[in-house]
Please model this.
Amino acid sequence: MATESAAARRRTGGAGDRTRDNRDIPHLPSIPRAPVRWTSAPPGALDLLAHARRALAEAAEATAPNERYAAAHLAALRTTAAVLAARARPEEEKPGRRRAPRSAWQLLPQVAPELTEWAGYFASGARKRAAAEAGLPNAVTAREADDLVRDVGVFIRLVVQLLGLPALTVVPPQED
Model:
């Protein structure tokens, strides 16, 4: 019987209840897998993840803290957009009423409640990103930029796992 359960765990990725462990992300609990599969994931979501990976690679290569921070935050935003593209469903609008625009950070907890803390974390860095993009001196420290690059890398891996997509390596930036 022990060999049957071990074989079942290997076939199901370690769990039969549609959860997946975080072997490549230490200290994170198992997360439920979404019903999105590589073959059924919207092409837009896959494109956004590819762009996010490239932005993260650019952030890792940048030397100025402002550039690293802005590129990493953009990678987080594109990753969030990929989740929204994969999971969001259009809402019925009531005639005569328009809803105020909402940011991706506000929408993310609605479509992926398990990413609520990440949404709050990245939303809190939006002003710093704007300051960094504006080129304000000392908008962010080198430590803040390094921390964000690292955290966005974890976020991307978590989203890839959450959406049930195969782990891919970071796509290098395109040469123009």
